[in-house]
Structure formats: C-alpha cells, structure tokens
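Continuing the batch. This is chain 6 of the set; chains 1 through 5 are on the previous pages. Same settings as before, nothing changed between runs. Recording input and output for traceability.
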Amino acid sequence: MVKLNVRSSTEVRDASTTLLGQLKPEDGQASLLVAKMESGRRELIAGVVRDKQFGSFVMLGMGGVFAEVLNDTSFAPTPLDSQSALSLIDQLKSQKVLGEFRGEQPVDRGQLAEVLVSLSRAQVENELVNSIDLNPLIVRPNGSVVAVDALVEMRSTESTEPISTHKNSSSKSATRHSSRHYEALFAPRGVVVVGASTHPGKFGFVSLHNILVNGYLGRVFATHLERATVLDIDCFDAIDSLPDDSVDLAFICTPASTNADILRACAKKGIKAAYITSAGYADLDANGLRAQIELSNLANELEILLVGPNGQGLISTPHKLCAQIVGPYPPQGSISLVSQSGNFVSSFMNYARQTGVGVARAVSAGNAAMVGVPEFFDYFSQDDSTKVALAYIEGVVDGRLLADSMRNLCTVKPLVVVKGGSTAGGARAASSHTGALASDDKIFDAVCRSTGVTRVSDVERAFDVAATFATQPLPKGKNTIVLTTIGGWGVVTSDAIHEEGALSLIELPDRLESEISKLLPQRWSKNNPIDCAGGETRETVVDIMRLVASDESVDAIIFLGIGIQSNQARMMREGRYFPDFELERIVNYHERQDAMYAKFAAELSVETKKPILVATELAVADPNNAGVVAVQKSGRLCYASGQRAARALTSVYLYAKWRGLAE
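Output for chain 6:
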C-alpha cells in the first residue's frame, strides 16, 4: 500500500493512520517507510530474470505506460560489465526518450549502467536470487535515475541446481565423439545404404541414387533382404555380408523396429557412423521417445556416432557425398549447414545452386537423439572445409550447451542463425513485471548478441549474409561508399544503410572527390553515393572503383549498375536485326564490359582486402545476364538489390566488430 504526494508532517500522520487502518489481523506486524517523493516524466524498468534454458539475464526496458504500449525491452546475460551494460542501453529502440526530453536532461547512461551492473552482481553473488524487479526506475529532470519500488524473488535451495531439459540428456552428456567419428560421417571410405529398394519412390532407392549420380569418391554398398540389384549395385542380404574394413557410414532406411539390430551389426563391421532416416520415434509418441532413448544409448555403448532419426540426410561436397532422401546437391563451397528441419537444408542448398556460392557440409539433425545442432557447431569450428556456418533452429533443448557451442564457433568463424517460433504466445501481454516481459525470443536474441551469432529473421537474408562471409573479406571498419551508375539505386541503398544503423555512409574526402572529378562530367553527384550520372565510359568505372578502394578512409564498397548494358545486348541479340548493322560487335562489347567490371571488382577486393559487393536485380530477373554470370564466375555473390547488399554488409561488419577485427 502506498500514499503519494505527502507534503507535510500532518499529511504523514493522516496517511499513516489510513494505511494502518487498512491492515487485517492476518497481515501480521507491519511497519511504515517514509521516503522522498520522486518525480520525472520518464520511467524505466530494470531487473534480473532467470531463464530455465539459458540462465540469468539483466533486463532493461521502458517503464510506466511505455512498458505496455511499446514493449521495448532488451536482455543481456550475466555477469554484466560496464561496457556490456552500456551496450544493453543502446539496444532499446526508444533512444529519443533517453535523450533530452521535454526540457529534461538526457538520461545519465553511466549511472544507469552502474545500476544494471549492480543488478547482475546481486544475482551472481547469491544464486538464491530468482528475480529482481526495479519498477519504476524514475528518470529525474536532471537525468539521474532512482528506483522507487523493488521486488526480489528468492528461490528455495532445492531448486538452485540447473536441470537439463533434454529428452535424452544422460546419453548426450556421456557421449564424446572423436574427429574419427565425424570423419566417418563426412569423409567415409565407404557407404552402405541399409534397406535399399527397387521402387524409385522409396527412401532406399532415392538415397542410393543420389549417392551414385553425384560422383561419391568412396565405395558404395547396399543391403536388400532378397539381394536384388538396385540401379547397378548388387545388394548384400545383410550388413554381416559386407567386406571387412570397407564401410565407415551406414545410411539406414529401414523400419524403426529393426534399427537396434542393424546398429549391432554395424558395430561388428567397424562402422563408426550411422544416419537414420526412419520416423516413428520421438516424433510419434511417448513410446517412440523411449525407443529413441534406447537406440541412442545403444549407439553410445557401441561407440557409433548416431545422427537422426527422422532426418533427410547429409551432404559433404569435398567428397562428392550426397547421402539424402531429397535433392538438391549444391556446388562445392565453404558454407556448412545444419538444421532442425530438413526442408531448410534444402532451401539453403537451393540458394547455393541459384547463386553459385557453394556448400561444404550440410546435415539435417532430425530428432537429434544423440547429436544435434550444438555438436555440429563444435565440428564446424574445427573443420578446415568450413568457413561459415548457417543454421536453422526451431527449439532449444539444452540452452547452456547451445550457447557454449555458439560462442566457441563464433570465436573462430561466423555463424548465421534463423530461428523459428520467434512470436511466442503471450509475449505481448500487458504486464510490466520483469519475468512476464522476458519472452523466449528476446532471451534467445540476447544469447545471440553475447555469443557473436549473426541472427536474421528470414532464409533469404540468412543466405545473403552467409554467402558474404564465404566470399568477401571482413571489413576493418564501418566506412562505406556506394558507387552507382543510376542515382535512384544509390538513394535506396543509402536508406538501407541508415536504417540498419551500423555502417557509415561517409562524406567523400576532398582528395578523393578531386580525383573522381577528373574522370566524370561536372554533373556527377560529388558526394556519397557516387553517382556517375551517365558519365561512365568503359574504363571510368574501373578507375573510380580503384580510387575508392585504395583510399585509406574507405572500408567497403557497394557497386550498383552491373548488367545494364548486357540487358540491352540481350534485347539486340534476340531481335530480328541481329547480327547485322554491327549489332554483333556492340553486343559482344557490352557483355565483355560487364564481365570486366565483375572480374575487376573481385580482383580489387582481394588486392585491397576490402569487401566490394556487386548488386543488380538481374541476379534474379535474368541469371544469364553476362554481368551476373561473371560475378558468379569470380566466386562472389551477385546481390539481388543494393538494399540486400547493404543489409548483408551490415551483418558482416557487426560480426567483425564483435571479434575485435573492425573499429
């Protein structure tokens, strides 16, 4: 019970009498607290909340009416230092409210950061603290902050130990797979398809077909109860009949009820890895879950790396291995994929085929009975063929394990994550209590920020970002220049850069502007974006790009305009007058020019060690455009728009900054 705006000793006595008169016998002994009345136009909410998966987090948000209207909150894992606290403040969307506000001073960020660090310390030093709620945290007119109400929730000593919620945590924690196991999975000397079928619609046929037609470099075997010939493989009737020391990976397409005996047979033949496509386990019911746990425990006893069940397969392009029950098979590259949904593996690989930016490894984790996303993150961190990891995550079964694996991977390689289920039910409930505001998605977002993960919201952007990591050098700073042959493209790309809020569209240094003015007509933009205003010739774009990339103040370039001349060349080539009237000569000229731009941009990027991103809508509108084809041949991604290039570059810069590799 509270009485506000008490202005005299008489009012204090009257308020005391009123409050004490409202007490009931069951309330017990009560005391009165008299405190200074605080006021301010702005209110914040701060606290500590404990998440069952990921541990404890400090929360900061807009309080008062803002809490319900804006739902503007951010989280950071404990322990929190001063720099992390300041970063947490910067993550609030309502930054204008934290600045000068209706005649009041800006919020004292240093003092607010001290409050957040103190909240973190209170929880870290006492594990019995379950949550702390400072609400409201009033911002005084002078910008200082003061907590006028607080709630501390303690938990019992019996609940202090973190409990894993993984459905098979005992099996996973007991399993420690060596590099030899993962080599058997991704670089096997031989593969056996268990349960091969003569029916072209069955998993046992499709998987064998995909292994054979994509040029797998090892030996291929198959089993069939009647020893049928499937495609051009004469099947064995059982695993026991396989030649000794010839197979490392079993790809199993048999009913769930047979798989335990199959694993035992695999162990006798020295097979170290098994991928199980069969459904009917945890995906089915409680009995299926028990069967899955038993299967995982058996694989653990047999020292077999078990992937699945209920998965679609795996890819390993360095060994031309396509062991999966669906297409496609991507070009070879340095992106490695893992997903809790097999369809997302296919989606990412479809983008790889479309863009020419290739894949190294890909695996559908299925039900993840023994190994899942965290274990593959650990493998990717040590895999020489992997330059960047890309993942789709839908559910978190062991938050601490996942966070540790993400952090370990991101310290050496970038990780791009798409997470499904980001709109948790009830997240927008009208409540100002810290715990109620802590939606699962915001906690996951905080984990990603703290571990260096690049989290994006959609598959398209995820692949753009991963392809940028795979094909471009990391920027050393945020200073970006947009070079365009068409003014409007530069404007919308600039808008995207400003909306993302991390890169800097720098003003042109005087020396650079002066040098560019020697190459372009007077009407050029004379600022950033550099709009050539139709004054570009065959060599002008190349010369300007070199001037910009060579400037010490420039960290990255986005080049817009490739393919325009080749687009006209296509119309000429398809028209009825081609090849007469010198059309063949001019068509070839235009196509060579665009190809030259693409080749030069890639070579200049390597030379200067600066990212140079090339973008045109023709990347999707006309993939056969000479400019687009040349970008792909250079080993780079041709972005479908300047905005997409800007967003991808922003993500790459933020990761480089997290690693301490960029200013």
